[in-house]
Design brief:
6 helices, alpha/beta, 3-stranded antiparallel sheet, 12% strand, 238 residues, 32% helix
Length: 238
């Protein structure tokens, strides 16, 4: 059996790098690309990060994920959400897909799943999908590790009991508001993100790495992808 693989261009996945205005035409083009790919008879799944992380916190237009959900349902294609970076409170919701009110067929989780204590990841799906894997068809050397699973359960309890998703939403809104108000627009033309998953766009004539070094000296670590600022959930409002 042959498989058809398509990588869709990120340039049509997000609002413009230098503006937060809605780009309905761009979103329409992107959904059209998804639809054309899903029409192929050998396409079984569409996998996407609800917010692209390593590419620079690229936030899709509102309604994009709902459009993807509708297309995948129409063509009987599995909608797979990679929530390893975005999931478990990072964007102000338990899952980033919750912002759009969509339910993927498969969700991948990691990172925050153990609160940073142990390496652990998970795949979530309904029985209709999971039961397609028969005994002996899939193996994992460390799968089901009892200590890692117990740590993950404890981390999920903390996430719920301390309201960390809601805290991420509140602090993220305040962070973006303050950054937009205080940073010079000629140097930082755009601040984007959701919850505590945020990025600063540095104007081309400035060195983003030098900005990251200055942030380090001030006690804040960032990555020069754009200038990626994934703040900790437990930080204070100050």
């Amino acid at each position: 059996m042959s498989f058809h693989t398509t990588t869709l261009p990120p340039s049509r996945y997000l609002t413009s790098l230098f503006t937060s205005n809605a780009q309905s035409e761009e979103m329409s083009l992107m959904c059209s690309s998804v639809q054309e790919a899903c029409k192929h008879p050998n396409v079984c799944a569409f996998m996407v990060e609800p917010i692209q992380g390593e590419a620079g916190i690229l936030v899709p237009d509102e309604g994009y994920l709902r459009g993807v959900r509708d297309i995948c349902t129409r063509y009987n294609v599995l909608f797979v959400a990679d929530e390893i970076q975005t999931g478990l409170g990072r964007t102000g919701r338990r899952l980033c897909c919750d912002h759009d009110g969509v339910r993927p067929d498969i969700v991948t989780l990691g990172k925050a799943l153990s609160g940073g204590f142990l390496p652990v990841s998970a795949v979530l799906a309904d029985n209709e999908v999971m039961n397609e894997i028969k005994p002996g068809e899939h193996g994992s050397t460390y799968g089901g590790n009892p200590l890692a699973c117990q740590v993950a359960m404890a981390a999920l309890d903390v996430l719920e009991e301390e309201g960390l998703s809601e805290r991420s939403e509140r602090l993220g809104q305040r962070l973006r508001q303050e950054l937009r108000a205080q940073l010079p627009a000629d140097i930082v033309p755009c601040v984007r993100g959701k919850g505590l998953m945020n990025a600063l766009v540095i104007a081309p004539e400035y060195d983003a790495w030098e900005v990251c070094l200055q942030l380090k000296d001030a006690g804040l670590l960032a990555k020069p992808t754009v200038s990626k600022v994934p703040a900790p959930f437990h930080m204070s409002r100050h």
